[in-house]
Amino acid sequence: MAAWADSTSVEEVMNDRDNKSSLYFNHHVLGIPYEDKRTGLSLEFFRSISRPELRYGYDPRYLHLMGVDQGAYITIWRMIPLSRADLFPFGKWQMVHAEFCPGSMAFKTFNKGPDGRLIPKPGRLNELMEQWKIVLCVIDGEPSGNDALNFQQDYVKEKRVWVNHSTKVNIDDPRLGFNWIENDIEPNQEEIFLGRISEDTTGALDAYFDFLYQGCLEIPAHEDNIQTIISHHTAMKKTTTEKKLTFGRVKYETIYYSTGASHFCHSGKFVYQAACLFFKLPFFIPNPGRGEIILDPEIIPALRDQGIVRPGNHAFRDYLATDNPLGFNSNVIKALCGKSNQ
Predict the structure, then answer these.
(1) Is the pLDDT of residue 71 over 70?
(2) Distance from chain centroid for Cα 46
(3) Cross-strand partners of 193
(4) 144 and 273 assigned to the same domain
(5) Of 136, 132, 69, nearest to 106 (Cα)?
(6) Per-residue pLDDT for 6 more than 60?
(7) Cys-Cys with 312: which of 42, 133, 138, 338 at CB 3.0–4.6 Å?
(8) Residues 26, 47: one domain?
(9) Which of 78, 89, 69 lies closest to 51, judged by CA?
(10) Residue 83 in contact with residue 91, Cβ under 8 Å?
(11) Residue 181's domain spans which residues?
């Protein structure tokens, strides 16, 4: 007889079988280990998502997101126009840039000028944010939390940078693999932007790999560093471990371990989280009756092509009635609202 049989009804067990994940059902209901047949990503899988015609490079017709694993390993995706659907709630994407940048060059530094004043020198991450018109970026909070938070502060007004803190947390939505907090309240009751992501590493990698398995990412086949990026992903392997508890009880946990360098895998995971946030955060979603914030007027053509910005959207009129805090010019207002709303 199963360990739970004397305390759990058959109806409850069957309900968990039908409505919980296989991992949850085996570990928490049956009390036996569950080994996912997919223990990681394979070379064959990456061949299936490689596109020989896809090349690195910025194209203003697209919307771009960035993920950064401190070190710094950087990955940039662009959204395939009109790819969001019920089966693909976070759209489909293409990897169009990846690079390694030494940590000493990644973040903004300050040089002393002739008059003794400190002059800021943008880091590589700042350069990429502007060159690629990055809409959202997720950066690893470790090992230097101060560097990540200072980088976030450069874009705090637009909420463009979010900091990821890997910790043991219960994930609200396993499809995402992470939780987030947008704002916090100061002691003086002022609301401030926090932009914090909390992830359980196993759940976050599960969600990212599931996203890839669904065919939501294409990668270039012939860029110089593509084999390094692939090897960083295939280095992450999943296994089930047994943890002994009191009174002879056993708990099974699924964990990932690395067989080699895996930095680009994590930076890819962070871009995936930015893609999720893009569609989860309310200020990116058309919402009649309140303001809709677009971060940079130059990305509006890309947003329109992807069906995110639509002519005649009344939300923009509501937004512009709030004194146009982002400073859109008249041509941008026409693009947002449509001629019928002028």
Answers:
(1) yes
(2) 20
(3) 183
(4) yes
(5) 69
(6) no
(7) 338
(8) no
(9) 78
(10) yes
(11) 43-280
